[in-house]
TrEMBL record:
<feature type="domain" description="FMN hydroxy acid dehydrogenase">
    <location>
        <begin position="13"/>
        <end position="399"/>
    </location>
</feature>
<keyword id="KW-0285">Flavoprotein</keyword>
<dbReference type="GO" id="GO:0016491">
    <property type="term" value="F:oxidoreductase activity"/>
</dbReference>
<dbReference type="InterPro" id="IPR037396">
    <property type="entry name" value="FMN_HAD"/>
</dbReference>
<dbReference type="InterPro" id="IPR000262">
    <property type="entry name" value="FMN-dep_DH"/>
</dbReference>
<dbReference type="InterPro" id="IPR013785">
    <property type="entry name" value="Aldolase_TIM"/>
</dbReference>
<dbReference type="InterPro" id="IPR008259">
    <property type="entry name" value="FMN_hydac_DH_AS"/>
</dbReference>
<protein>
    <submittedName>
        <fullName>Alpha-hydroxy acid oxidase</fullName>
        <ecNumber>1.-.-.-</ecNumber>
    </submittedName>
</protein>
<comment type="similarity">
    <text>Belongs to the FMN-dependent alpha-hydroxy acid dehydrogenase family.</text>
</comment>
<keyword id="KW-0560">Oxidoreductase</keyword>
<dbReference type="Pfam" id="PF01070">
    <property type="entry name" value="FMN_dh"/>
</dbReference>
<dbReference type="InterPro" id="IPR012133">
    <property type="entry name" value="Alpha-hydoxy_acid_DH_FMN"/>
</dbReference>
<keyword id="KW-0288">FMN</keyword>
Length: 400
């Protein structure tokens, strides 16, 4: 019997023991105050959409091929005019530094190191310029090229502020714009209501007690720069009030056409779940689509993204790039999405579980776990490349 030499980096040791994303979730729950953890972990209403999304992935069968002679699996994936080293990127998430002080800095750095896209949210806690600096620095150090970064846009009631963001994103080297269209108002997220979730956070006695036995989070929260959101109110408000004052429920197809006219790069519409909305988005000038139910965080009982994928692909045709978002927690989920017609996938909760578990190191561990799970699944399926997964007979789903 041999014993490993104990290391001094406790965070690395803790993360190294995580065997999958669920293990990172367990670490995250232990180390993060409840309001922040529940904001990530929760969904809208009775959380039916979130549960059904996971059930759909679990019901999908990946078909193995024996004696296939595949020596390796190439995970490089073309998307949005570039190439990602893995068939997934990091989805846009808001309030990220509330989950961990490293926030978007940790996510963007981990993504650039891995050679995958990082998407900054309109409601992010670092600016376009700050994320660009981190992405470029790490990308040049690791690969000799700037990191790939995308920007997610909500259309504000103030159109000039939307235009300002678009122009800043262009200047900062964000080559792809994801326009989220499924958030005219805030979803009814009951966990956040029960936790009294506000931005900026209010330090109630309950909050202090909850954070007191999570010393690392508490120390970081008190000693790093204040949590600010340049696009949001500076006063403490509940999330529904913030979103209600910021977003525009009158968003129309004409507004999407306007965005297309002022955005020079690639444009994806995020939140498409039906053939009708697929056609309307493409007719308005979208280059690609993100099939997404917002992780079940908006309309409860909405269609499951994985199930909607076939309908969207049939309407869009084979040449339109489609990204699958919502519910991905394993490499097998990624493989299932690709085999069912997606060109690429995005991870949200999985990335944030890693971030809460250990900052940038935790995100890197999440990426590492998903990449290895994806590679093993592809090898067992006899798929030498992501393109091989799209051949007929690779997957079975009960709804097809």
């Amino acid at each position: 019997m041999q014993f490993g030499r104990p290391g001094l980096d406790r965070r690395a040791a803790r993360l190294g023991r995580a065997a999958d994303i669920d293990d990172l979730r367990t670490i995250a729950q232990r180390r993060t105050p409840r309001p922040a953890f529940d904001y990530v972990d929760g969904a809208a209403g009775q959380e039916l959409t979130a549960r059904r999304t996971r059930e759909a992935f679990a019901a999908t069968e990946l078909l193995p091929r024996i004696l296939h002679g595949t020596a390796a699996a190439d995970l490089n994936t073309p998307i949005a005019g570039g190439t990602s080293a893995l068939p997934f990127g990091i989805a846009p998430t808001g309030f990220t530094r509330f989950m961990h002080a490293e926030g978007e800095d940790g996510g963007a750095a981990a993504a650039a190191a891995a050679g995958i896209p990082f998407t900054l949210s309109t409601m992010g806690t670092r600016s376009l310029e700050q994320v660009a600096e981190v992405s470029d620095t790490v990308g040049m150090e690791r690969h000799g090229v700037p990191g790939t970064r995308w920007f997610q846009l909500y259309l504000w009631k103030d159109r000039q502020r939307s235009l300002d963001l678009i122009e800043r994103a262009t200047a900062a080297g964000f080559g792809t714009l994801l326009v989220t269209v499924d958030t005219p108002v805030a979803g009814n997220r009951l966990r956040d209501v029960r936790n009294g979730m506000t931005i900026p956070p209010r330090l109630s006695l309950k909050t202090v007690l909850d954070a007191s036995h999570r010393p690392e989070w508490w120390f970081n929260f008190l000693t790093t720069d204040p949590l600010t959101f340049a696009s949001l109110s500076t006063s403490a408000q509940d999330l529904q009030t913030i979103i209600g004052s910021m977003f525009d429920p009158t968003l129309s197809i004409q507004d999407l056409e306007w965005i297309r006219s002022v955005w020079p790069g690639r444009l994806f519409v995020k939140g498409v779940l039906t053939a009708e909305d697929t056609r309307r988005s493409l007719d308005a000038g979208a280059d690609g689509l993100v099939v997404s139910n917002h992780g079940g965080r908006q309309l409860d009982r909405a269609p499951v993204s994985l199930k909607a994928l076939a309908e969207v692909r049939a309407e869009a045709g084979p040449d339109v790039e489609i990204i699958l978002d919502s519910g991905i927690l394993t490499g097998s989920d990624i493989v299932a999405a690709l085999a069912l017609g997606a060109d690429f996938t995005l991870i949200g909760r999985a990335y944030l579980y890693g971030l809460m578990a250990g900052g940038r190191q935790g995100v890197e561990r999440a990426i590492e776990l998903l990449a290895e799970e994806t590679r093993v699944a592809m090898m067992l399926m006899g798929a030498a490349s992501v393109a091989d997964l799209r051949r007929e007979g690779r997957v079975r789903a009960p709804w097809l």
